[in-house]
Amino acid sequence: MAVSLDLPPAPDLVRIKRALISVSDKTGIVAFGQFLASQGVEVLSTGGTRKALVEGGVAAIEVADVTGFPEILDGRVKTLHPKVHGGLLAVRGLAAHKAALEEHGMPEIDLLVVNLYPFEATVAGGADAATCVENIDIGGPAMIRAAAKNHGYVTVATAPDQLEAIQAEMAAQSGAVSFDLRRRLAGEAYARTAAYDARIAGWFAEQRGEVLPATLPLAGTEGEILRYGENPHQAAAFYRMPDAAGRLRLGVATATQLQGKELSYNNLNDTDAAFELAAEFDVPAVAIIKHANPCGVATGATLLEAWQAALKCDPVSAFGGVIAVNRTLDAATAAAIGKLFVEVIIAPDVAEDAVAALAKKKNLRLLKTGGMPDPAAKGLTVKTLAGGLLAQTRDDGRIGEADLKVVTKRAPTAAEMADLLFAFRVGKHVKSNAIVYVKGQATVGVGAGQMSRVDSARIAARKAADAAEAADEAVPLTVGSVVASDAFFPFADGLMAAVEAGATAVIQPGGSIRDDEVIAAADAAGIAMVFTGMRHFRH
Predict the structure, then answer these.
(1) Cα–Cα distance measured from residue 233 to residue 211, given in angstroms and rounded to the nearest whole number
(2) 253-368: CATH superfamily
(3) Candidate from 42-56, 312-326, 518-532 with smallest mean pLDDT
(4) Catalytic site residue 291?
(5) Taking a C-beta distance cutoff of 8 angstroms, is the pair 373, 251 a contact?
(6) What angle do CA 437, 498, 531 make, to 5 degrees?
(7) Nearest-5° angle of CA 328, CA 333, CA 334?
(8) Which is the CATH superfamily of the domain at 13-208?
(9) Using an 8 Å Cβ cutoff, are 445 and 460 in contact?
(10) Residue 222: what pLDDT?
(11) Neighbours of 436 (CB within 10 A)
(12) For 111, which of 43, 134, 150, 391 is 20 to 30 Å away at the CA?
């Protein structure tokens, strides 16, 4: 049943006369308590927080002395008391509420400073299940929600970095806090408890082995407002989404920007795509991304060799692209990349002389992440739809030579086999329908996102011919290459387009009702073909 009260309008300024402080993270709390004391504010507190405040010269009153009820159940019950919640929830100007406070001896609480038990840190530290459960805060969220609901009269702080704003207003307004700040902090308080509960729910799902639970709570935090979305008329922000242990996947969420202008929505999207692709390889690798699709990928003995080979694939599309490397970015590679206009370079680490080599490129964004993501790691990806979310497990599928089935009369050579596996791994990161030509562990043609697989094959071949022309080579780079398809060839026409381009071996999932026709066409052309049994649609 909905509850409606005839409430008086909330005042703009509310003077802080009494505060309750109970924090796990005690950063800045003693100095803040000292400030409150200097303003004549009565401070209530508990446990370790009170001890720290008292040692800092703040005459903090034990909450139990106010409630008349001792802390019990090993600390599980200490602030869960009507005198605490009555003091937080009472509407100041409502006669009936004032009378109830007086009748039951409930002191008004104007400021609540609470941050929560470190559940995420406890999980991250590898604690057993019982310890993790014990670090689920109960009293803290209850008080936070109460104070936030009554923000017309109560100020609530849930993080150390909020104390400065409260102190500044109190100092400027004779100990009072404005309605605008109270309302903002109330919203942030509910966001914090929502994120906290989402992490706990996620952990419980993990404990049960549920990958896709009946209810999927998601909590994006540390929202960073971007200039705009994909287009100037769209608003955008980047939210970090830690797991139940508070860990972020290595990549854009963990990146430190060393130089360059502000990152945009498109920059972040492309940078994520580039870094995830570079992470697929164990040897030095470079991935060049344009509009979330690779336009050049290669491995080499060094990053510089990989860069040169990747750039050769499609130097036109590489202009204004995003570059990812899977090793510490060195000065020689940085200098080579710096000759081309690129938007972003992302690396697990960046050598000091590499930073110096790029310093004159004032707008180029240079990011270091602190490591590479694990391409085989479990996890979820989420996409919004009208009125809902689509969630699926991350595409962690990886094919090795032992997984392949040779279906043609001719088996691939060792060199072809190595290139086939490389091509299929790249194809995993190309928008469907995807066709990838590879020679010598480097892409030589990429066809992405076409409605017809035949068109993707032709576009990739056309790009390879253009690249050969740009490199003053008479023969298209696809001649003598291998080709990967992200899904099966429904007809032989797509395969024959690849053969016409010069491909000598094919890797594809198989599984079409016309597989026999496609295999026969491959045999007639004298090429080798292997089936993976796994597709990599990417929409």
Answers:
(1) 36
(2) AICAR transformylase, duplication domain (3.40.140.20)
(3) 42-56
(4) yes
(5) yes
(6) 75
(7) 85
(8) Methylglyoxal synthase-like domain (3.40.50.1380)
(9) yes
(10) 75
(11) 32
(12) 134
Q: What is the pLDDT of residues 105-118, one digit of tens each?
A: 789 899 999 998 88
- By C-alpha distance, which of 294, 329, 338, 332 is closest to 313? 294
pLDDT band at 66 (very low <50, low <70, confident <90, very high): confident
Query: What is the reported pLDDT for 147?
Result: 94
Measured CA distances, 38 to 34, 167, 168 (Å)? 6, 11, 14
pLDDT beyond 60 at 128: yes
- The burial of 501, by beta-carbon neighbours within 10 Å (0-12 exposed, 13-18 middle, 19 or more buried), is given as buried
pLDDT at 4 over 70: no
Apex 36 CA angle, 34 and 37, nearest 5: 65
Could you give the CA distance from residue 420 to residue 534 in angstroms, rounded to a whole number? 14
Q: Which residues contact 519 (CB under 8 A, 6 or more apart)?
A: 407, 408, 529
Query: pTM (2 decimals)?
Result: 0.88
126 within 8 A of 67, measured Cβ to Cβ: no
13-208 and 253-368: identical CATH topology: no
Residue 271's identity, in one-letter code, is T
Give all strands (DSSP E) within 473-537, no chain letters: 482-485, 505-508, 528-531
**φ, ψ for residue 316 (rounded to 5)?**
-70, -50
Structure tokens at 376: 């085989």
What is the CATH code of the structural domain delimited by 400-531? Answer: 3.40.140.20
296: phi then psi, degrees, rounded to nearest 5: -175, 125
Map out the domains of the chain as residue ranges.
13-208, 253-368, 400-531
Q: What is the pLDDT, as a whole number, of residue 15? A: 94
Which residue in the block uniquely carries the two structure tokens 């102190």?
167
**Residue 77 DSSP one-character state:** B
Q: Which of 26, 98, 149, 361 is catalytic?
A: 149
Q: Which amino acid is at 40?
A: G
Active-site annotation holder among 17, 26, 98, 291:
291
233 belongs to the catalytic site: no
